Amino acid sequence: MDEKDMKILNILMKDGRKPYTEIAKELRTSESSIRKRVRKMEGEGIIRGYRVEVEAPKIGYNVVALTGFDTNPEDFLTVANKLCEFDEVKKVWTSTGDHMIMTEIWAKDGRELSEILFNKVGKIEGIKKVCPAIILEQLK
Predict the structure, then answer these.
(1) Are 56 and 98 spatial neighbours (Cβ–Cβ below 8 Å)?
(2) 56: pLDDT strictly greater than 90
(3) Is the pTM of this model over 0.85?
(4) CA Rg, the chain, in Å?
């Protein structure tokens, strides 16, 4: 990884669909150089993939909750993996700090979020505590 690779990564993290020709122009290099560097970073696992970022409310999900889960220590990984199985759970992280597992959960409204938390994910064996925080506005 050199400075040019880092610049390419920063550009792609802002816009993963930006054409190599535009990146090359911005960095004053050839398109083939950009293509080779990106392929190399993909091959080394630095770039793991390209994703679509969705504006949840525009497709009917008006409630997004960052939700912390605390578990029995022996159930930690089992619970984290089980949370990955639910379509409503968009992201799952294991963490240090206030909660052992953090998730991003999408719901159409508060009633659906309650259903998800109390009748679906909250019933996973080994969960001791569920702590949702509803996102009011995403600024960045």
Answers:
(1) no
(2) yes
(3) no
(4) 20
C-alpha 100/C-alpha 92 separation (Å) is 11
Place of tokens 């659906």: 112
Angstrom distance (rounded) from CA 117 to CA 109:
12
Q: Binning pLDDT at 50, 70 and 90, where does residue 114 land?
A: very high
Q: How far apart are CA 101 and CA 140, in angstroms?
A: 23
Q: What is the mean pLDDT of the chain?
A: 95
Residues 6+ apart with CB under 8 A from 89: 83, 103, 104, 105, 121
Please state the separation of Cα 51 from the chain's center in Å. 10
Q: How far is CA 6 from CA 45, 95, 123, in A?
A: 14, 27, 43
3-state DSSP assignment of residue 9: helix
Dist. CA 130–CA 67, nearest whole Å: 7
- For the sheet with 101-107, list strands across it: 89-94, 101-107, 63-71, 127-134
Report DSSP letters for 67-131, one per residue: EEEEE-GGGHHHHHHHHTT-TTEEEEEE-SSS-SEEEEEEESSHHHHHHHHHHTGGGSTTEEEEE
CA 134, distance to chain mean position in Å, is 16
